[in-house]
Amino acid sequence: MMSPLLPLLSLLVSSLALPFEQRGFLDFSLDIVDGGGSMMMMNDEEGSAIEEETPAPPGPGPVCPFGCHCHLRVVQCSDLGLTSVPKNIPSDTALLDLQNNKITELKENDFKGLHNLYALVLVNNRISKVSGKAFQPLRSLQKLYFSKNLLTEIPQGLPPSLVELRIHENRIKNVRKGAFQGLGSMNCIEMGGNPLENSGFEPGAFDGLKLNYLRISEAKLTGIPKDFPASINELHLDHNQIQAIELEDLIRYKSLYRLGLGYNHIRMIENGSLAFVPNLRELHLDNNRLSKIPASLPDMKYLQVIYLHANNISQVGVNDFCPRGFGVKRAFYNGISLFSNPVNYWEVQPAAFRCVTDRLAIQFGNYKK
Fold first, then answer.
1. Contact criterion met (CB below 8 Å) for 355 and 333
2. Full-model pTM
3. Are 25 and 72 in contact (CB under 8 A)?
């Protein structure tokens, strides 16, 4: 059975780059009403001698915080100028939207009794202090959107049920050892837009995590950190200051199928470094300073998409993308971007793209210095 929260959460995920905007309350499910508010059928059987009783007036419903909108299990308190978490939040709330306010602190009892809360949106506040017990009641919380605040560290006491943490555009400089301890269900972390350097990750900072997705873009990384969880399938480190891909940078990440390194300062990719990610499907190296095609691409059996545009590549050899023998590559390319490089497309031999599904998959464009 599809969770009634999925339609609303799809709106949240699609708007992570910008402040979440609720355009209208969504009906999670009318089944929610059946918890005690369903309408009972009166006995209208023909010939019945049962005297109909006058129904008692309904009791008072859950209190909605002043200024907020409450509909089924959604409580929307965004854009109200709040300086603290409001009181009287209904105990059955599944999604609480507090974004675009002026909240500065999360205190111990702010979420007291909200045992059913599934998603909490705190985007675009002024939060710099979080009590270690603030999230203790939230034993069902799976999604926490904490971006665009003033945090200087990963909050302590995050609930073990958490699956997704979006904490980009804060002021986090260090991730201490054990910062994510006890979060074995965590699947996705987005923490870009923080002033993180390579030295900011203490050894063991990601111990205990089995992530599928990690993004640390728009930070101050100068190399690929070697201590991320080995389980990662998607790693996005775009918009950093990474200089090179060295031989053992990727040795830990054998499960990667998508690697984003666009908008860095990469000049060199050491021979053999990409051999440690044999299952890679998509590689983003656009907007770097490469002067040639990475040497190991023909050996990547499953690579289907590679972005190399906006580099300094001046030539494309006949064997730069495709293996020499037949049957070596298991998946053909369906996307190669080479535009905004000083290479003349008419000088490239057609055989260079013999393992590409269609000529429209190759993007050359015109080079303009």
1. yes
2. 0.82
3. yes
